[in-house]
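Supplementary notes for students who missed Thursday's class. We covered one full example, reproduced here. Read the sequence, then the structure, then the short commentary at the end.
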Amino acid sequence: MKEQSSLKNITFHSIKVTERTEWSFVEIFNGDHRCTVEITSGSDTKLVVQLFTELFDLVKAKGVKDESQVEVIASLTTNQLQQNQPLAIAVSALRTGLIMLAAQAKSMTLTEYLGGESKLNVPLYANINRCLLGDHRTPRDFGNAAERAATDGFRVIKCAPFDDIVAGQSSSDLLNAAQAGIDRVKSVRSAIGPELGLLVDCHSCFDEKTAIDVAVKLADFKINWYEEPLPPITGQAELARIASRIGTPLAGGERGYGTKFFVDLLSGGSVNIVMPDVKFCGGVGEAKRIAEAIIFKHGRVSLHSPSGPVSQLASAAVTAAVAGSSLLEHAVYEAPWRSDVLTPPERIEKGLFWFPNTKNSDVVLNRELVIKRGRSWTS
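Structure (token representation):
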């Protein structure tokens, strides 16, 4: 994929979603087109904005013919980007933006530009965690959210039931603290019945022994994957041992950068399902390369996408472009006005993401909603 740079300027936008969530975006302009890329990064957003601005100015001055040249122009190594998440987000956003602008110049959808055939939709699974942050975390709350998602047509539900666990405790204390989360999973399974898929995300809160003990308890609820009981970036050996001891597939890798990281993760037996995130992994082009490499090695790929509609659209395009991709993540019920962030609006129905009815990649932010709920600025 060759993307000739003729970059002009950038504008940043943010939208307040909840007390805990703010979606952040960068809008990139060249001579004829513009695109919007998500850079949501919590407390690191200010730093990401600074890094992106510096990177944009550098690439604008030097020019690129291929988005993969961004690392070379900036004199960055893959290892540096793996160790520096704000920098990885900035690099990933610019790489994605260059591809999106190139797709628009050719009047192609992003899926087409990535080498796939445009589709009407891609299937999703429902991540109920974003609507359960804060005080609404009883087993009944989890069950109600899961039941709502099932009623809305999602056939697979994911929960993160252990987010209140403080990592670093003794194994016995971790196991005791995990009981509340196990009760939440039990409630979800009871609410959705035996036929729907159930995924459990641990957000890296366990040690090796506790991860195995909890997996044994969760097996009673027939979960379909066990996500990141330990961090894949630093705990690959431990994850491989866990995988050899339990019958549930391990998933993870959401913070990984570059194809080699994910191939190593799969080859070392640390996971069965890799989860690249377009915001972290190097952008949409790198995500496609990761997915193809993993599927070639007979692994499974499910893009990580618990963010806003801009990242969701980009992730859906990659998912559609790679034959054999597994379900794409979607964070449900975080904001009732979510669909209005983009023009045309995001459309999710009966567990499916529906691509906008446009001939290229020209969806844009809803300016009125940004004014009402957020702000815009230039660096």
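Commentary. The mean pLDDT is 95. The radius of gyration is 20 Å. If anything here is unclear, bring it to office hours.
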